[in-house]
C-alpha cells in the first residue's frame, strides 16, 4: 500500500505535467502584426499619389507602431490590399491582466479623414492626430494562458466602431497618412 506522501507527490507531479502541457499548446498572446522592415524606415514619397498610397500608409503606420508602444501596450499592424488591422496588446504594469484588441479598417469603409494638431498638457508638446471616421470593426478579448487567440479574421464577433484616432509626434507623417488614406477611401 502506498503512503499518503507518495500519492500526494504523484498527484502534484501529474498536475504540474498537465499545466506545462497546456502552456505548450500555443495558448496566450502571439504577435500577429507584420514586422518592421528596412524599407519601412525609408523616407516617405514626396507627392502622395494613388499609386504609392498603400506604401505611404504602411510606412506611416509602422512609424506609429514604433512611437506609440509603451510598457503598458504594444501596437502593431497587419496590412492587406483592402485595408489594415491595428493590433493592440495591453497589460497592467504588474502583468496580472492582459488584453488584445483588433480594429479592422477597410479603405472603402472610411468616410472622412481629418488631420489636426493639439497640445498635450501632460507631455507639454504639440501632437498631431489623424482621425478616421467610418464603419470599422473591433474585437477585444482577455489573454488566457490556456486559450489560443483566433487568427486574424477568424474572431467570433466584432463590434462596429465609428472612428479611429492615431497620434503622431511629427506633423509630416500625420499629414502624409491623411493624404494617402483620403486617396484610398475615394472610389476611382
Name the average pLDDT. 84
- What summary fits the major beta sheet? 6 strands, antiparallel
Q: N-to-C SSE series?
A: HHEEEEEEH
Distance between the termini: 82 Å
Number of beta-strand segments: 6
Over the alpha carbons, how many angstroms does the gyration radius reach? Answer: 22 Å
Tell me the domain tally.
1
Gist of the model:
The chain is an alpha+beta fold and 188 residues long. Helices cover 27% and strands 35% of the residues.
Describe the structure.
There is one protein chain. By secondary structure, the chain is an alpha+beta fold. It has one domain. Helix content is 27%, strand content 35%. The protein is built from three helices and six strands, in the order H-H-E-E-E-E-E-E-H. Strands 1, 2, 3, 4, 5 and 6 form a six-stranded antiparallel β-sheet that branches. Strand 2 and strand 3 form a beta hairpin. The chain is globular and about 75 Å long. About 7% of the residues have low confidence.
Attribute tags:
188 residues, globular, alpha+beta
Task: Give me the secondary-structure topology.
Layout: H1 4-23, H2 53-68, E1 73-80, E2 83-91, E3 98-106, E4 110-120, E5 125-142, E6 159-168, H3 171-185
Antiparallel strand pairs: 1-2, 2-3, 3-5, 4-5, 5-6
Helix pairs in contact: 2-3
